[in-house]
Design goal:
By secondary structure, the chain is an alpha/beta fold. The protein is built from 10 helices and 15 strands. Strand 6 and strand 7 form a beta hairpin. Bound molecules: flavin mononucleotide.
Amino acid sequence: MHKLSCKKNSQRTWLLSVYFRQITLLFICILAKISECICPRGETDITPVFGTGIGGSNPPEGTEDLNITQYNRRLNVITLSNGHQFEYMAASGALAYFGRGWWWEKPLVWLGLLDPSLFTVVTKTLTYRPRRGNLRWYKPWSCVRPIRGGMVNAVGLTNPGYKWWCRERVDQLMRQACDTSKPAIPLVISLMSESGIKEVKVMARQLRRFPIRLRVVGVELNASCPNTQSAALADPALVVDQCHAVKDEYPGPLILKLSVMHDVAKIVPKLDGVVEALSINSVPWRLVYPNRPSPLHRHGGGGVSGQAAQPYTWQLVRRLADLTDIPVIGPSVWEFNDIARLRKLKAAAISFGSVFLRYPWRPTLFVRQDRPLAP
Ligand SMILES: Cc1cc2nc3c(=O)[nH]c(=O)nc-3n(C[C@H](O)[C@H](O)[C@H](O)COP(=O)(O)O)c2cc1C
């Protein structure tokens, strides 16, 4: 009897603590939103990471003296072979599995402060088999943490598996797509193979069967997760082979997601005519903060993203833009002026990743500011 009441008590305490955290999160969001409204455009309260503190280094060449007001903005758009055009992307994981946002982002979606329809949305990465990873819906902070000017995550590709997703979720997506009261969201399906090219071939083949109405505009091959033991991270030939394998099976556009750890000179020149755009993943913790233990050290350190990752991800944007004509999608936007900085580095479109998790309303606000006439 005593044991039972103890158990009930501890369950009650646990539930209370979950509610408390959620309410705190909501409260912080509201406060941050108010402070953002007070801040004039582009002047956010975030200290630039360049040259300061841990992980700080010099800005990538070409952005130091960038005078934003003098920068002559041109419309940067990526046009894929199926005619889909996009300027702004929501990175994989930023808006959950379907591109409609994580549960804690829903109030902002309802309020119109987060509008997924402004973005071409990459789904959270799917692997062929289900992967437990480290993400638990009731305590997401155990593998996603805020750091100064960014985030570190060690989600480890938690996902229900491609087969399950296709079986259980395509119908749901279809219902959403048929619901004319909601704007359609163009989706890019993110896939990762855990074993060579066979899995990725099977998954790509299946994509062909997706109804056109779903607005699947392409596939992103994730060859760069910092939280898994992916062989593709260390093997450029495997990345090239995987891209060809997807292309053999799926006629639509292919986007390749690279890591700053990749030897890109051995990959990218071999993918002309195969890959239609390049995106960039988060940066392993040990690279950004070699002398600091990660708050997620028990999950292997995690990947750093956001402003804290800019010295690395932006260097890769520049390198890729010099190396190839394949359009590069620039990541790590944290404040409004980062969009112009990325364009100066020749990014052909802009990706919003962890900024969605830290300041969920910012990408929508930035896109509306960047393109005042956008819907
Ligand atoms: C919580 C979280 C989950 C993520 N999940 C995935 C994923 O499933 N697949 C993937 O390719 N990238 C994933 N990423 C990486 C982002 O898509 C993005 O590449 C990364 O955050 C770097 O971009 P950023 O600096 O703009 O945030 C995830 C990032 C975060 C913070």
